[in-house]
Amino acid sequence: MSVTPDSLSDPGSHSPLVRPPDAEEELNPTESVWRARALDFTERYALAVLFVATFIFFSTWSKTSSTFPTAANIKNVLGSQAVYGILALAIMIPLVCGEFDFSVGSLAGLTQVFCAWFMSVDGFPVWVAIGVAIGIGALVGLSNGNTVARVGVNSLIVTLGVASVLLGIVEWRTKGLSVSTNIPKSFINLGSGEWFGLPKTIYYLAGAAIVTYYMIEHTPFGRYLQSIGSNREAARLVGLPVERLVLLSFVLSGTLAGIAGVLWVSLNGGANPQLGTVVQTLVALAAAYLGATAIKPGRFNVIGTMLAVFFLAFTVNGLSLAGVANWINDVFNGAALFVAVLISTIIGRKRAGVA
Question: Is the pLDDT of residue 105 over 90?
Fold first, then answer.
C-alpha cells in the first residue's frame, strides 16, 4: 500500500504512520500516577522493609530467637559496626564523583597500628597520637587524590596498589604481632561503655554520618561532586574545578579511614594487624552500593548507606548465632556486593533514560 497525502490527512486511514492508541495510553491518568508512586515507594524503601523482615525472622526462628533479639546482642552489633559504618562513608564520598577508593580498609588498618604504636612505644599523649594517625590517613588520601585527579591514573588501579603497600607497611611495623601494651585507659574509655543506654561508638558514627550527609546534600561542594559523578565533562564545561574536587574527595575519604582506624584501637584496646584487609573494604563497598538502591535510588546517599551497613551486620549476626559455617558470611557479603552493584546499575540506567 502506498502512502499518499490523502492517507496522511485522513485520521481513519490505515496508513502505517497512523495507528490506534495502545491500551497503555488509554489508562486512567489517576491509575498511572498511583502506579508510579507505588514503584517509587518500592524502590526507596524495599531495603528497609527487607531489614525489618530479616530482623523479625531471626527474632522468631527457633535457632536464634533466644539470643538475637536481646538488648545485649543488639547493643553489641550497633557498637561493633561503627568502624564499618565510617569506612562505608569513606568509600562513598569518592563514589559520589565516580571514583573508587579501595584503600580505605587497609588505610584504617595502618592508622590503627600507628595510633597504638605512638602511644604504646613512643609514649605520645593520647590526643597527639589521635591527631597524627588521622593526619596520616589524610596524607594517604591526598596522595591517592593527586595521582588520580592530577596525574590521571585510574582510581581502581591506584587505590588497589596503595592498599597492598599499606598492608606491607603494617606487616613490617608489627611483624604480625598485636600492639596492645601501655595503651592509656583514658583512650580505651573513649570507645568502651555506653552513653544513655547505647554504645559510645554509635554516637561517633552518627556524628560522622550527619556531617557527611550535610556536606553531600546541603553544600555546594556536595552538589559539585554529584555533578561530576553524573557527567564529568559537563561539569568541566560549566567551570567546576573537577581535579581539585576529586582530590578533596580522596582527602576526606582518607581522613574518615583514619578516624575508623583510631576507633578500632579504642574498641579493641590495641592494634590488631589482621584487621584492615580487603574484607573490610569489600564490606564497606557492599554497604555503599546497597545503599544506592534505597532512599534515593540510583544515587549514593548517606541514609541508604547506613541502612545497608546495619542490614548486612544484623543478617551476618543472625547467621552466626544460628551456627552457620564462617564461609557463609563471606559468601553473603560477596553476594550482597554483586546484587547491590547490579540493582544500582539497573536503577541508574532506568532513571537516566527517564531523564
Answer: yes
Q: In 3-state terms, what secondary structure has residue 234?
A: helix
**Residue 198's beta-bridge partner residues?**
195
Q: How many CA atoms lie within 13 A of 182 on its CB side?
A: 11
Beta strands in 160-236 (DSSP E): 194-195, 198-199
Three-class DSSP labels, 58-120: HHHCCCCCCCCCCHHHHHHHHHHCHHHHHHHHHHHHHHHCCCCCCCHHHHHHHHHHHHHHHHH
pLDDT band at residue 199 under the 50/70/90 scheme: very high
**pLDDT tier, 333 (very low <50, low <70, confident <90, very high otherwise):** confident
Report yes or no: 180 and 123 within 8 Å, Cβ to Cβ.
no
- Cell 552466626, residue? 320
Average pLDDT on 275-287 reads 88
Count other Cβ atoms within 10 Å, centred on residue 60: 11
Give the DSSP letter string of 277-320. Answer: SHHHHHHHHHHHHHHTTSSSTTS--HHHHHHHHHHHHHHHHHHH
Query: At which residue does the C-alpha cell 491509575 appear?
Result: 31
Q: Could you tell me what percent of the chain has a pLDDT over 90?
A: 61
Domains of the chain in sequence order: 56-354 (1.10.3470)
**What average pLDDT does range 127-148 have in this prediction?**
96
Burial class (CB in 10 A: 0-12, 13-18, 19+), 306: buried
What sign does the dihedral 285-291-292-293 (CA atoms) show?
positive
- Cα 95 to Cα 100: distance, rounded to the nearest angstrom: 6
End-to-end Cα separation, the chain, in angstroms: 38
Q: How many CB atoms lie within 10 A of CB 233?
A: 9
Specify the amino acid at residue 313. A
> What pLDDT, on a 0 to 100 scale, did the predictor assign at position 30?
73
- pTM score of the predicted model: 0.86
Note the pLDDT of residue 33: 74
Distance from C-alpha of 271 to C-alpha of 253, rounded to nearest angstrom: 21
